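Reviewer 2 asked us to include a model.

Predict the structure of this chain.
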Amino acid sequence: MTADGPLISVQPEELKFQFELEKQCFCDLKVTNKTEHYVAFKVKTTSPKKYFVRPNAGVIQPWDSSVIRVTLQAQKEYPPDMQCKDKFLLQSTIVPPHSEVDELPQDTFNKDTGKTIEECKLKVVYLSPQAALGNSEDESTKGFKQSFDDNTNPGLQRLKEERDAAVRQTQQLMQELELLKRRGNRKNDPGFSLKFALLVGLIGIMVGLLLNLTLSSPSPAPAAPME
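Predicted model (structure tokens):
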């Protein structure tokens, strides 16, 4: 029995572990049978005492998949420069239909038998938690710093306060103007025209001041271009 293409696909292509001292961590591998045959697999490693592999062998039905969990045992010290030289080897071969892993002959993955044995080599990569979270923390810190600077800028804060005060005064003048209109409708007040003109003039001045404050407020900085 032979297959035209590769027997299996493996995702991800590297074993990546979030390395922390004295803590176990794991990485899952998804192994997919790319053929119409039953395919057996077996996992080997150069450091069997450091890792648990479950299952370390199995049979995958046609077009089906299996998940292998590789667990790194708790380590007492960091490797030099967080570099790992450990490697994994995943072997696969076609087996008779409806085969069970417990029933596989001992020489199933022996190349000397003349069988076609595919091999997939996997590297091991250690990731520190700080490195994994570094980018997101940097972005959060930048955003917080920008917000903090904007809120504590004395000039900007003063302009905001003046603008808010102008808005409140303008609203108060508008209310007084409305009140004068109502009084003028009820009775003929000789001083109404003068009061009305003065109030309208004050409102015009306040609106002009409000516009100046709004236009003088610094606009937000443009977003930095992506690199």
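Residues 154-186 form the longest helix (33 residues). The helical segments are 129-152, 154-186, 192-216. We have added this to the supplementary material.
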